[in-house]
Amino acid sequence: MTVIAHISDLHVSKSDFNEEMFMKAVSEINGLQPDMIILTGDITGNGYYKEFKQATRYLAMFEPPLFAIPGNHDARNLGYQTFEELIGERSWKLTVGEDFTVIGLDSTTPDDNRGDIGRPQHLWLEHQLDECVVNENFSIVVLHHHIISIPQTGRERNVLSDSGDILKTLTTHEVDLVLSGHKHVPNIWKINKTLVVNAGSLCSEKLRGKNLNSYNVYNISEDEIKIYLHNVDGEKFLFGEYPRNKI
User: Fold this and answer.
1) Is residue 33's pLDDT more than 90?
2) Cα–Cα distance between 245 and 224 in angstroms, integer?
3) What pLDDT band is residue 247 in, cutting at 50, 70 and 90?
4) What domains appear along the chain, each with residue ranges and CATH number?
5) pLDDT (tens digit per residue) in 202-228
6) What's the CA angle centered on 154, arms 150 and 157, to 5 degrees?
């Protein structure tokens, strides 16, 4: 079984970052010993170099391998350049074993909250997913912006601008999991055979209503995908349970 911890929206900054909550989350996730941690953006609050430097020290506290893509807050103030310097590539492909592929996308535009994949990156994504289909790989696509509106998040302002085209590519390739952040509200949609899962904020003070700081954990076996929602320093419960796609 493969176990993945999905965290998002840390917002490391002087104003919105809750260090105590982050430290509790680190202890919990390290205790789970997942195979990997996926971070779906907004590592920083404003994309400042100093914030990224501080964030790298925090992220180093996680023991499992961590893979991140940027969020709209990370793309501010030349943060898209700093991300590459201190965190890593903004889009990437990870192959685990012979039959497990994770693809990270950069949905950000410098100094703009709106999301966009763009044609060149979309073509690259299609090529990678074609290979997944041919090789019969379990596939995960990771991006910051949501491709489908999230309930209880107010007026829709910045869903991925080319979401229709991206959603078609994801569903026609029968991608198993699509992971996003951005809205600070956990949610699951199932579109055809594709699970589209949003994570809440791990440790930001910017929470909606009675939502708590949280993260998702995915237990992926040969037969099923179990999704658990963990409230930091609180309740854990089964968020969704779905059979694996069969080739």
Assistant:
1) yes
2) 8
3) low
4) 2-243 (3.60.21.10)
5) 999 999 989 999 999 999 999 999 999
6) 80
> pLDDT digits over 54-87, tens only?
999 999 999 999 999 999 999 999 999 999 999 9
Specify burial of residue 238 (Cβ count, 10 A radius: 0-12, 13-18, 19+).
exposed
Separation of alpha carbons 170 and 164, rounded Å: 10
Q: Is 35 exposed, middle or buried (0-12, 13-18, 19+ CB in 10 A)?
A: middle
Rg of the chain over Cα atoms, rounded to whole angstroms, equals: 17
Q: Is 146 exposed, middle or buried (0-12, 13-18, 19+ CB in 10 A)?
A: buried
3-state secondary structure of 229: strand
CA pair distance 44, 144, nearest whole angstrom: 13
3-state SS class at 132: helix
